[in-house]
Automatic annotation (TrEMBL):
PROSITE patterns: AMIDASES
An MF annotation (GO) of this entry: catalytic activity
Protein origin, superkingdom: Bacteria
Source organism (scientific name): Puniceibacterium antarcticum
Domain Amidase stretches: 28-432
InterPro entries named among the record's database cross-references: Amidase, Amidase_CS, Amidase_dom, AS_sf
Coiled coil (residue ranges): none
Protein's name in the database: Amidase domain-containing protein
Length: 443
Protein backbone atom coordinates (compact mmCIF):
# COMPACT_ATOMS: atom_id res chain seq x y z
CA UNK A 1 0.00 0.00 0.00
CA UNK A 2 2.98 2.30 0.45
CA UNK A 3 3.07 4.89 -2.27
CA UNK A 4 -0.29 4.16 -3.90
CA UNK A 5 -1.41 7.76 -3.44
CA UNK A 6 1.49 8.93 -5.63
CA UNK A 7 1.00 6.38 -8.41
CA UNK A 8 -0.52 7.34 -11.72
CA UNK A 9 -4.13 6.33 -12.22
CA UNK A 10 -3.10 4.04 -15.09
CA UNK A 11 -0.48 2.27 -12.99
CA UNK A 12 -3.07 1.73 -10.26
CA UNK A 13 -5.44 0.30 -12.85
CA UNK A 14 -2.77 -2.07 -14.14
CA UNK A 15 -2.00 -3.12 -10.57
CA UNK A 16 -5.66 -3.99 -10.05
CA UNK A 17 -5.69 -5.91 -13.33
CA UNK A 18 -2.68 -7.98 -12.27
CA UNK A 19 -4.32 -8.79 -8.95
CA UNK A 20 -1.68 -6.88 -6.98
CA UNK A 21 -4.02 -4.15 -5.70
CA UNK A 22 -7.38 -4.72 -4.05
CA UNK A 23 -9.71 -1.85 -5.07
CA UNK A 24 -11.39 -1.68 -1.66
CA UNK A 25 -8.04 -1.42 0.10
CA UNK A 26 -7.00 1.21 -2.44
CA UNK A 27 -10.14 3.28 -1.82
CA UNK A 28 -9.57 3.05 1.93
CA UNK A 29 -5.97 4.27 1.53
CA UNK A 30 -7.22 7.37 -0.28
CA UNK A 31 -10.05 7.93 2.21
CA UNK A 32 -7.56 7.67 5.08
CA UNK A 33 -5.22 10.10 3.32
CA UNK A 34 -8.07 12.59 2.92
CA UNK A 35 -9.09 12.25 6.57
CA UNK A 36 -5.51 12.79 7.76
CA UNK A 37 -4.65 15.72 5.51
CA UNK A 38 -4.50 19.10 7.32
CA UNK A 39 -6.09 20.91 4.37
CA UNK A 40 -8.78 18.31 3.62
CA UNK A 41 -11.59 20.79 4.33
CA UNK A 42 -10.04 23.28 1.90
CA UNK A 43 -9.83 20.65 -0.84
CA UNK A 44 -12.93 18.47 -0.44
CA UNK A 45 -16.38 19.99 -0.01
CA UNK A 46 -17.82 16.56 0.73
CA UNK A 47 -16.31 13.07 0.90
CA UNK A 48 -18.46 10.06 -0.07
CA UNK A 49 -16.88 7.08 1.73
CA UNK A 50 -19.94 4.80 1.55
CA UNK A 51 -20.22 5.21 -2.20
CA UNK A 52 -16.47 4.89 -2.70
CA UNK A 53 -16.17 1.65 -0.74
CA UNK A 54 -19.26 0.12 -2.34
CA UNK A 55 -17.99 0.94 -5.83
CA UNK A 56 -14.54 -0.37 -4.91
CA UNK A 57 -15.95 -3.67 -3.60
CA UNK A 58 -17.82 -4.16 -6.85
CA UNK A 59 -14.63 -3.40 -8.80
CA UNK A 60 -12.76 -5.98 -6.73
CA UNK A 61 -15.33 -8.67 -7.51
CA UNK A 62 -15.12 -7.88 -11.22
CA UNK A 63 -11.33 -8.06 -11.13
CA UNK A 64 -11.40 -11.49 -9.47
CA UNK A 65 -13.53 -12.96 -12.25
CA UNK A 66 -11.76 -11.18 -15.10
CA UNK A 67 -14.67 -8.87 -15.96
CA UNK A 68 -13.10 -5.44 -15.51
CA UNK A 69 -14.94 -2.62 -17.25
CA UNK A 70 -11.98 -0.43 -18.15
CA UNK A 71 -8.30 0.12 -17.44
CA UNK A 72 -9.34 2.45 -14.60
CA UNK A 73 -11.97 0.12 -13.11
CA UNK A 74 -11.50 0.46 -9.34
CA UNK A 75 -9.40 3.64 -9.43
CA UNK A 76 -10.50 6.41 -6.99
CA UNK A 77 -11.10 9.89 -8.43
CA UNK A 78 -12.60 13.17 -7.25
CA UNK A 79 -15.33 15.30 -8.85
CA UNK A 80 -15.64 19.07 -8.93
CA UNK A 81 -18.66 20.24 -6.93
CA UNK A 82 -20.69 21.20 -9.98
CA UNK A 83 -21.30 17.62 -11.13
CA UNK A 84 -24.61 16.40 -9.75
CA UNK A 85 -24.37 13.46 -7.36
CA UNK A 86 -27.55 11.64 -6.43
CA UNK A 87 -28.43 12.24 -2.78
CA UNK A 88 -25.31 14.33 -2.10
CA UNK A 89 -25.24 18.11 -2.08
CA UNK A 90 -23.92 19.81 -5.23
CA UNK A 91 -23.49 23.52 -4.52
CA UNK A 92 -20.96 24.76 -7.10
CA UNK A 93 -19.04 26.67 -4.46
CA UNK A 94 -21.90 29.08 -3.82
CA UNK A 95 -24.16 29.88 -0.88
CA UNK A 96 -26.84 30.53 -3.51
CA UNK A 97 -27.07 26.75 -3.97
CA UNK A 98 -26.60 25.74 -0.32
CA UNK A 99 -28.53 22.55 0.43
CA UNK A 100 -29.12 21.72 -3.25
CA UNK A 101 -29.29 17.89 -3.42
CA UNK A 102 -29.81 16.36 -6.89
CA UNK A 103 -31.82 13.21 -7.41
CA UNK A 104 -29.50 11.70 -10.00
CA UNK A 105 -25.88 11.76 -11.08
CA UNK A 106 -24.66 13.95 -13.91
CA UNK A 107 -24.43 12.03 -17.18
CA UNK A 108 -20.62 12.01 -17.20
CA UNK A 109 -20.51 10.75 -13.62
CA UNK A 110 -22.94 7.95 -14.48
CA UNK A 111 -20.84 7.02 -17.51
CA UNK A 112 -17.60 7.07 -15.52
CA UNK A 113 -19.18 4.97 -12.77
CA UNK A 114 -20.33 2.48 -15.42
CA UNK A 115 -16.65 2.24 -16.45
CA UNK A 116 -15.74 1.39 -12.85
CA UNK A 117 -14.29 4.69 -11.61
CA UNK A 118 -14.65 5.07 -7.83
CA UNK A 119 -16.10 8.39 -6.59
CA UNK A 120 -14.23 9.71 -3.56
CA UNK A 121 -16.26 12.91 -3.23
CA UNK A 122 -16.74 16.50 -4.34
CA UNK A 123 -14.02 19.14 -4.46
CA UNK A 124 -14.14 22.87 -3.77
CA UNK A 125 -14.20 25.38 -6.62
CA UNK A 126 -14.48 29.05 -7.48
CA UNK A 127 -17.98 30.33 -6.88
CA UNK A 128 -20.24 29.22 -9.77
CA UNK A 129 -17.00 28.56 -11.70
CA UNK A 130 -16.55 32.24 -12.61
CA UNK A 131 -12.88 32.81 -11.71
CA UNK A 132 -9.52 31.45 -12.75
CA UNK A 133 -7.92 32.08 -9.38
CA UNK A 134 -9.58 29.55 -7.09
CA UNK A 135 -10.17 32.09 -4.33
CA UNK A 136 -13.45 31.36 -2.57
CA UNK A 137 -14.03 32.93 0.86
CA UNK A 138 -17.67 31.75 0.77
CA UNK A 139 -16.75 28.04 1.01
CA UNK A 140 -13.00 27.38 0.86
CA UNK A 141 -9.90 28.21 -1.17
CA UNK A 142 -7.81 25.15 -1.97
CA UNK A 143 -4.04 25.53 -1.50
CA UNK A 144 -1.45 25.40 -4.27
CA UNK A 145 0.91 22.44 -3.99
CA UNK A 146 3.90 24.74 -4.62
CA UNK A 147 2.92 27.56 -2.24
CA UNK A 148 0.57 27.04 0.73
CA UNK A 149 -0.08 30.79 0.91
CA UNK A 150 -1.21 30.99 -2.74
CA UNK A 151 -4.41 30.04 -4.53
CA UNK A 152 -4.44 26.80 -6.51
CA UNK A 153 -6.06 28.20 -9.64
CA UNK A 154 -9.67 27.93 -10.66
CA UNK A 155 -12.26 27.23 -11.07
CA UNK A 156 -11.36 23.52 -10.61
CA UNK A 157 -9.26 24.46 -7.58
CA UNK A 158 -9.97 21.53 -5.26
CA UNK A 159 -9.83 19.12 -8.19
CA UNK A 160 -6.22 20.03 -8.88
CA UNK A 161 -5.29 20.04 -5.19
CA UNK A 162 -6.86 16.61 -4.65
CA UNK A 163 -4.49 15.07 -7.22
CA UNK A 164 -1.43 17.19 -6.43
CA UNK A 165 -1.62 16.36 -2.70
CA UNK A 166 -2.24 12.65 -3.29
CA UNK A 167 -5.90 12.70 -2.22
CA UNK A 168 -7.22 11.31 -5.53
CA UNK A 169 -5.62 9.39 -8.39
CA UNK A 170 -7.25 11.77 -10.89
CA UNK A 171 -9.96 14.42 -10.88
CA UNK A 172 -12.77 15.61 -13.10
CA UNK A 173 -13.27 19.34 -13.57
CA UNK A 174 -14.82 21.76 -16.03
CA UNK A 175 -13.25 24.35 -18.31
CA UNK A 176 -15.08 27.43 -19.61
CA UNK A 177 -12.16 29.84 -19.94
CA UNK A 178 -9.29 27.83 -18.48
CA UNK A 179 -10.78 26.23 -15.38
CA UNK A 180 -9.09 22.85 -15.92
CA UNK A 181 -5.83 24.10 -17.43
CA UNK A 182 -5.04 26.90 -14.96
CA UNK A 183 -5.22 24.79 -11.77
CA UNK A 184 -3.52 21.90 -13.56
CA UNK A 185 -0.73 24.21 -14.71
CA UNK A 186 -0.24 25.84 -11.33
CA UNK A 187 -0.12 22.44 -9.59
CA UNK A 188 2.21 20.71 -12.09
CA UNK A 189 -0.47 18.45 -13.55
CA UNK A 190 -1.79 17.55 -16.97
CA UNK A 191 -5.11 19.23 -17.77
CA UNK A 192 -7.30 18.54 -20.81
CA UNK A 193 -9.95 20.89 -22.18
CA UNK A 194 -12.23 18.92 -24.47
CA UNK A 195 -14.07 20.17 -27.51
CA UNK A 196 -17.42 21.73 -26.66
CA UNK A 197 -20.16 19.10 -26.94
CA UNK A 198 -17.85 16.07 -26.76
CA UNK A 199 -18.97 15.26 -23.21
CA UNK A 200 -22.49 15.76 -21.88
CA UNK A 201 -23.28 18.78 -19.71
CA UNK A 202 -26.51 17.24 -18.43
CA UNK A 203 -26.40 17.45 -14.65
CA UNK A 204 -23.50 19.91 -14.68
CA UNK A 205 -24.19 23.26 -13.00
CA UNK A 206 -23.74 25.76 -15.87
CA UNK A 207 -21.71 28.94 -16.14
CA UNK A 208 -21.81 29.75 -19.86
CA UNK A 209 -23.07 26.59 -21.54
CA UNK A 210 -21.82 27.49 -25.01
CA UNK A 211 -18.26 27.42 -23.63
CA UNK A 212 -18.59 24.95 -20.72
CA UNK A 213 -16.63 21.71 -21.19
CA UNK A 214 -15.74 18.70 -19.03
CA UNK A 215 -12.15 17.54 -18.65
CA UNK A 216 -9.74 15.55 -16.46
CA UNK A 217 -6.83 16.70 -14.28
CA UNK A 218 -4.18 14.01 -14.00
CA UNK A 219 -0.54 13.25 -13.23
CA UNK A 220 0.33 12.01 -16.73
CA UNK A 221 -0.82 12.28 -20.33
CA UNK A 222 -1.61 8.58 -20.31
CA UNK A 223 -3.93 9.15 -17.35
CA UNK A 224 -5.59 12.00 -19.22
CA UNK A 225 -6.27 9.72 -22.19
CA UNK A 226 -7.64 6.92 -20.01
CA UNK A 227 -9.82 9.31 -18.03
CA UNK A 228 -11.23 10.73 -21.26
CA UNK A 229 -11.96 7.18 -22.42
CA UNK A 230 -13.86 6.47 -19.20
CA UNK A 231 -15.83 9.72 -19.45
CA UNK A 232 -16.77 8.76 -23.01
CA UNK A 233 -17.78 5.25 -21.96
CA UNK A 234 -14.84 3.58 -23.73
CA UNK A 235 -12.90 0.88 -21.91
CA UNK A 236 -9.42 2.19 -22.77
CA UNK A 237 -7.53 4.42 -25.17
CA UNK A 238 -4.44 3.17 -26.99
CA UNK A 239 -1.39 5.03 -25.67
CA UNK A 240 1.20 2.41 -26.50
CA UNK A 241 4.48 3.71 -27.89
CA UNK A 242 5.57 7.33 -27.79
CA UNK A 243 5.68 8.89 -31.28
CA UNK A 244 8.87 10.64 -32.39
CA UNK A 245 8.86 14.44 -32.33
CA UNK A 246 11.24 14.71 -35.26
CA UNK A 247 9.62 16.72 -38.02
CA UNK A 248 6.55 17.63 -35.99
CA UNK A 249 5.53 21.21 -36.69
CA UNK A 250 4.43 23.55 -33.94
CA UNK A 251 3.29 27.13 -34.16
CA UNK A 252 4.53 29.30 -31.30
CA UNK A 253 1.66 31.76 -30.94
CA UNK A 254 2.77 35.39 -30.66
CA UNK A 255 -0.51 37.32 -30.77
CA UNK A 256 -1.62 38.51 -27.30
CA UNK A 257 -0.38 35.46 -25.35
CA UNK A 258 3.23 36.65 -25.07
CA UNK A 259 2.38 40.06 -23.63
CA UNK A 260 3.09 40.86 -19.97
CA UNK A 261 4.67 37.49 -19.23
CA UNK A 262 6.11 37.29 -15.75
CA UNK A 263 9.74 36.23 -15.50
CA UNK A 264 9.14 32.66 -14.26
CA UNK A 265 6.58 31.58 -16.87
CA UNK A 266 8.60 33.27 -19.63
CA UNK A 267 11.78 31.39 -18.72
CA UNK A 268 9.93 28.09 -18.30
CA UNK A 269 8.30 28.49 -21.71
CA UNK A 270 11.57 29.21 -23.50
CA UNK A 271 13.16 26.24 -21.75
CA UNK A 272 10.30 23.99 -22.87
CA UNK A 273 10.65 25.11 -26.49
CA UNK A 274 14.39 24.42 -26.37
CA UNK A 275 13.76 20.85 -25.22
CA UNK A 276 11.18 20.28 -27.96
CA UNK A 277 13.63 21.55 -30.57
CA UNK A 278 16.32 19.29 -29.14
CA UNK A 279 13.91 16.37 -29.64
CA UNK A 280 13.57 17.27 -33.32
CA UNK A 281 10.44 19.41 -33.35
CA UNK A 282 10.10 22.29 -35.78
CA UNK A 283 8.80 25.40 -34.02
CA UNK A 284 7.79 28.51 -35.95
CA UNK A 285 6.50 31.81 -34.55
CA UNK A 286 2.96 32.40 -35.75
CA UNK A 287 0.73 35.44 -35.63
CA UNK A 288 -3.04 35.01 -35.44
CA UNK A 289 -4.68 38.43 -35.82
CA UNK A 290 -8.07 36.70 -36.06
CA UNK A 291 -8.10 36.13 -32.28
CA UNK A 292 -7.84 39.83 -31.41
CA UNK A 293 -11.51 40.60 -32.03
CA UNK A 294 -12.90 37.61 -30.12
CA UNK A 295 -10.56 38.29 -27.19
CA UNK A 296 -11.97 41.81 -27.08
CA UNK A 297 -15.49 40.40 -27.31
CA UNK A 298 -14.93 38.00 -24.40
CA UNK A 299 -16.83 40.19 -21.89
CA UNK A 300 -20.03 40.05 -23.92
CA UNK A 301 -19.59 36.41 -24.98
CA UNK A 302 -19.07 35.20 -21.42
CA UNK A 303 -20.81 37.62 -19.07
CA UNK A 304 -23.98 38.06 -21.12
CA UNK A 305 -24.61 34.32 -21.07
CA UNK A 306 -23.55 33.92 -17.45
CA UNK A 307 -25.79 36.81 -16.35
CA UNK A 308 -28.69 35.51 -18.40
CA UNK A 309 -28.29 32.11 -16.75
CA UNK A 310 -27.94 33.34 -13.14
CA UNK A 311 -29.60 36.78 -13.03
CA UNK A 312 -32.78 35.81 -11.19
CA UNK A 313 -30.95 33.69 -8.61
CA UNK A 314 -28.32 36.36 -7.95
CA UNK A 315 -30.78 39.24 -7.73
CA UNK A 316 -32.82 37.30 -5.17
CA UNK A 317 -29.85 37.05 -2.75
CA UNK A 318 -26.88 39.17 -3.91
CA UNK A 319 -25.51 39.39 -0.36
CA UNK A 320 -24.69 35.68 -0.39
CA UNK A 321 -21.98 36.07 -3.03
CA UNK A 322 -18.31 37.05 -2.88
CA UNK A 323 -18.50 40.59 -4.23
CA UNK A 324 -15.88 40.33 -7.03
CA UNK A 325 -17.63 37.25 -8.44
CA UNK A 326 -21.06 38.89 -8.20
CA UNK A 327 -19.78 42.01 -9.91
CA UNK A 328 -18.35 39.95 -12.74
CA UNK A 329 -21.76 38.37 -13.31
CA UNK A 330 -23.46 41.76 -13.11
CA UNK A 331 -21.21 43.00 -15.91
CA UNK A 332 -23.53 41.08 -18.23
CA UNK A 333 -26.18 43.74 -17.70
CA UNK A 334 -24.27 46.08 -20.01
CA UNK A 335 -24.86 44.01 -23.14
CA UNK A 336 -27.93 43.68 -25.32
CA UNK A 337 -29.13 40.63 -27.17
CA UNK A 338 -27.95 42.28 -30.38
CA UNK A 339 -24.47 42.73 -28.87
CA UNK A 340 -24.36 39.05 -27.98
CA UNK A 341 -25.53 37.82 -31.40
CA UNK A 342 -23.09 40.07 -33.23
CA UNK A 343 -20.21 38.92 -31.02
CA UNK A 344 -21.00 35.29 -31.77
CA UNK A 345 -21.15 35.98 -35.49
CA UNK A 346 -17.70 37.54 -35.30
CA UNK A 347 -16.43 34.61 -33.26
CA UNK A 348 -17.73 32.05 -35.76
CA UNK A 349 -15.96 33.90 -38.56
CA UNK A 350 -12.72 34.06 -36.56
CA UNK A 351 -12.91 30.34 -35.77
CA UNK A 352 -13.05 29.52 -39.47
CA UNK A 353 -9.96 31.63 -40.14
CA UNK A 354 -8.12 30.12 -37.17
CA UNK A 355 -8.88 26.55 -38.30
CA UNK A 356 -7.46 27.20 -41.75
CA UNK A 357 -4.54 29.20 -40.41
CA UNK A 358 -3.47 26.51 -37.94
CA UNK A 359 -4.16 23.45 -40.10
CA UNK A 360 -0.49 23.21 -41.07
CA UNK A 361 0.64 22.67 -37.47
CA UNK A 362 0.43 19.61 -35.27
CA UNK A 363 -0.38 21.99 -32.40
CA UNK A 364 -0.04 25.63 -31.43
CA UNK A 365 2.01 26.43 -28.32
CA UNK A 366 2.01 29.16 -25.68
CA UNK A 367 2.51 29.52 -21.92
CA UNK A 368 -0.50 28.15 -20.04
CA UNK A 369 -0.62 31.17 -17.73
CA UNK A 370 1.36 34.42 -17.94
CA UNK A 371 1.67 34.58 -14.15
CA UNK A 372 2.29 32.48 -11.05
CA UNK A 373 -0.32 31.69 -8.37
CA UNK A 374 -1.07 34.89 -6.40
CA UNK A 375 -1.08 35.00 -2.61
CA UNK A 376 -4.47 34.64 -0.95
CA UNK A 377 -3.95 37.59 1.40
CA UNK A 378 -3.10 40.02 -1.38
CA UNK A 379 -6.13 38.94 -3.43
CA UNK A 380 -8.38 39.51 -0.43
CA UNK A 381 -6.93 42.92 0.44
CA UNK A 382 -6.69 44.56 -2.98
CA UNK A 383 -9.89 44.58 -5.02
CA UNK A 384 -8.38 45.92 -8.24
CA UNK A 385 -5.51 43.43 -7.99
CA UNK A 386 -8.05 40.59 -7.84
CA UNK A 387 -9.73 41.78 -11.04
CA UNK A 388 -6.57 42.38 -13.07
CA UNK A 389 -4.85 39.19 -11.90
CA UNK A 390 -7.93 37.09 -12.65
CA UNK A 391 -8.20 38.44 -16.19
CA UNK A 392 -4.48 37.97 -16.82
CA UNK A 393 -4.60 34.43 -15.44
CA UNK A 394 -7.31 33.36 -17.91
CA UNK A 395 -6.03 35.25 -20.94
CA UNK A 396 -3.96 32.53 -22.63
CA UNK A 397 -6.25 29.63 -21.87
CA UNK A 398 -9.25 31.59 -23.12
CA UNK A 399 -7.82 31.41 -26.64
CA UNK A 400 -8.56 27.67 -26.61
CA UNK A 401 -12.16 28.16 -25.50
CA UNK A 402 -12.84 30.94 -27.98
CA UNK A 403 -11.35 29.00 -30.91
CA UNK A 404 -13.25 25.89 -29.79
CA UNK A 405 -10.70 23.10 -30.13
CA UNK A 406 -9.14 20.61 -27.78
CA UNK A 407 -6.39 22.04 -25.57
CA UNK A 408 -3.98 20.74 -22.94
CA UNK A 409 -1.48 21.93 -20.38
CA UNK A 410 1.61 19.90 -19.50
CA UNK A 411 4.14 20.52 -16.71
CA UNK A 412 7.41 22.08 -17.89
CA UNK A 413 9.40 20.95 -14.87
CA UNK A 414 9.36 24.49 -13.47
CA UNK A 415 6.92 24.73 -10.53
CA UNK A 416 3.52 26.21 -11.46
CA UNK A 417 4.55 26.86 -15.08
CA UNK A 418 2.67 24.92 -17.74
CA UNK A 419 3.03 24.57 -21.51
CA UNK A 420 -0.26 24.86 -23.40
CA UNK A 421 -0.95 22.88 -26.57
CA UNK A 422 -3.85 24.08 -28.70
CA UNK A 423 -5.37 21.49 -31.03
CA UNK A 424 -8.19 21.16 -33.52
CA UNK A 425 -11.93 20.87 -32.95
CA UNK A 426 -12.57 17.20 -32.18
CA UNK A 427 -8.82 16.56 -32.15
CA UNK A 428 -8.50 15.04 -28.68
CA UNK A 429 -7.03 11.71 -29.84
CA UNK A 430 -4.39 13.37 -32.01
CA UNK A 431 -3.55 15.93 -29.34
CA UNK A 432 -3.15 13.27 -26.67
CA UNK A 433 -0.84 11.20 -28.87
CA UNK A 434 1.26 14.27 -29.57
CA UNK A 435 1.27 15.21 -25.88
CA UNK A 436 2.82 11.84 -25.01
CA UNK A 437 5.86 12.85 -27.07
CA UNK A 438 5.93 16.36 -25.65
CA UNK A 439 5.71 14.96 -22.11
CA UNK A 440 8.67 12.67 -22.79
CA UNK A 441 10.73 15.56 -24.16
CA UNK A 442 9.98 17.78 -21.16
CA UNK A 443 10.97 15.23 -18.52
Amino acid sequence: MMGWTSWSASDLGRGIGRGEIDPEALAQVFLDAIAAHPDRDRIYARVTPERALAEARAAGLRAKVGRRLSLLDGVPVSWKDLFDTAGVATEAGSALLKGRVPERDADVLRTASAMGLVCLGKTHMSELAFSGLGLNPVTASAPCVNDPEAVSGGSSSGAAASVAFGLAAAAVGSDTGGSVRIPAGWNDLVGLKTTSGLLSLSGVVPLAAKFDTVGPLTRTVEDSAQMLAALLGIGAMDTGGVPDLRGRRFGALQTIVMEDLREGPAAAYEGALERLRAAGAVIEPVEAPEIVGPMGDAPVLYTAEAWGTWRDVIEAHPERMFAPIRERFEGGRAFSGADYVAAWQRLDAARAVWAGHMAGYDAVLCPTAPNLPPKVDRLMEQGEYYVTENLLTLRNTRVGNLMGGAAMTLPTGVPSCGLQLLGQVGGEAQLLRLALSVEAALR
